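Section 3.1: Structural characterization of target chains.
Under the original work plan, the team committed to producing a structural model for every single-chain target entering the pipeline before any wet-lab resources were allocated. The record below documents one such target. The sequence was received from the expression subgroup and is listed exactly as submitted; it comprises 103 residues.
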Amino acid sequence: MIDNFLITIRDRASKNILFLPHALDRMLQPDRRIEMDEVKKVIFEGEIIEDYPEDTRGHSCLMFKILNRPIHVVCAPKDEYLAIITVYLPINDKWENDFKTRK
């Protein structure tokens, strides 16, 4: 099921990506800036580490990839686009050293 959802996510992202205001606010934090290209790499090369099928915003998930640093992206596929709900750099006090497992 996760594999099919990942295919759907990447399909919608290839159509269009919509960055919601919260995601843009997080991406533009001066001390923790995250570029759009980094988010795209997480979507197209990363993995789903948490699945939220019952999310009130619609089925969504948490994706992860280490580029030059670990990055988390919460996203939800819609009919014609992928909604980026939030983006952040995980911190050690909330995540294990693999940045995939919550403490």
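The first strand starts at residue 17 and ends at 19.
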